[in-house]
């Protein structure tokens, strides 16, 4: 029990940990609004307030976050030229997303002209979606490399040794983390597409709610202390 409490404290001490928790509140509230709007308008209104407040809070938490993409490229550009090119596009898209998200937050809180919100939302979502596409390509490439490496290890004469067994476990653990990243990126891509090109599927409350929760919980899994 104490170990779980310690892990929760460590998780919530991270900015990403708080973001995933508040994101859960935001998209659970969105689903509640959809479920209650016809049967209990008062409760639906309160859920909507929680959704809006959570969304604005998350934007405040992400102040300055656009610099993380630049830092990632500076510290770890990638092992191969192809990976480095993909990383540039992926992180550039994420940087555009977080940078213009600041202006979206300020316009929705009334600091800037509220008419800017729609334009800032489009630019932010476009950068976000572009980044997620390239991040998914990177993750799939790394998963493919991991599978090939695992096959190579299993074919080797030392496949039964403890050292090789530990290598295989490490590859499998990395694969799970990358699959979680793909799930989160695809879910967030759907949310981004809802802003770029509104349509009945992406903009439906259930689609957005489930996508938001998939993203939040996949991120929760990846950030949870091991």
Which term fits the overall shape?
globular
Low-confidence residue ranges:
none
Quaternary class = single chain
Gyration radius over CA:
20 Å
Could you give the order of the helices and strands? HHHHHHHH
Structural class: mainly alpha
Count the domains.
1
User: How many DSSP-defined strands?
Assistant: 0
- How much strand? under 5%
Mean pLDDT equals 90
Helix percent reads over 70%
Characterize the largest beta sheet: strand count, sense, and whether it forms a barrel: none
- Please report the number of helical segments: 8
How far is it from the N-terminal to the C-terminal residue, by CA?
15 Å
Task: Chart the SSEs and their pairings.
Blueprint: H1 2-13, H2 15-36, H3 41-61, H4 67-75, H5 81-108, H6 116-155, H7 162-196, H8 205-223
Helix pairs in contact: 2-3, 2-8, 4-5, 5-6, 6-7, 7-8
Pfam family, one: PEX11
Subcellular location: Peroxisome membrane
GO molecular function: identical protein binding
């Amino acid at each position: 029990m104490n170990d779980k409490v310690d892990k929760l404290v460590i998780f919530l001490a991270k900015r990403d940990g708080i973001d995933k928790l508040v994101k859960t509140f935001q998209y659970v509230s969105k689903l509640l609004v959809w479920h209650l709007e016809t049967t209990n308008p008062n409760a639906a209104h309160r859920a909507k307030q929680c959704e809006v407040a959570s969304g604005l809070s998350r934007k405040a938490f992400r102040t300055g976050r656009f610099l993380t993409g630049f830092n990632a490229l500076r510290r770890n550009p990638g092992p191969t030229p192809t990976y480095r090119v993909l990383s540039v596009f992926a992180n550039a898209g994420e940087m555009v997303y977080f940078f213009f998200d600041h202006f979206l937050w300020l316009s929705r809180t009334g600091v800037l002209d509220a008419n800017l919100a729609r334009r800032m939302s489009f630019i932010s979502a476009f950068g976000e979606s572009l980044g997620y596409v390239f991040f998914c390509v990177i993750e799939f490439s790394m998963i493919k490399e991991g599978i090939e490496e695992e096959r190579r290890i299993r074919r080797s004469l030392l496949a039964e040794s403890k050292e090789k067994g530990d290598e295989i476990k490490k590859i499998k653990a990395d694969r799970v983390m990358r699959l979680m990243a793909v799930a989160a990126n695809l879910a967030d891509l759907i949310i981004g597409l809802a802003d770029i090109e509104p349509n009945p599927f992406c903009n439906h409350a259930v689609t957005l709610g489930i996508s938001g929760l998939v993203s939040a919980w996949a991120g929760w899994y990846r950030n949870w202390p091991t």
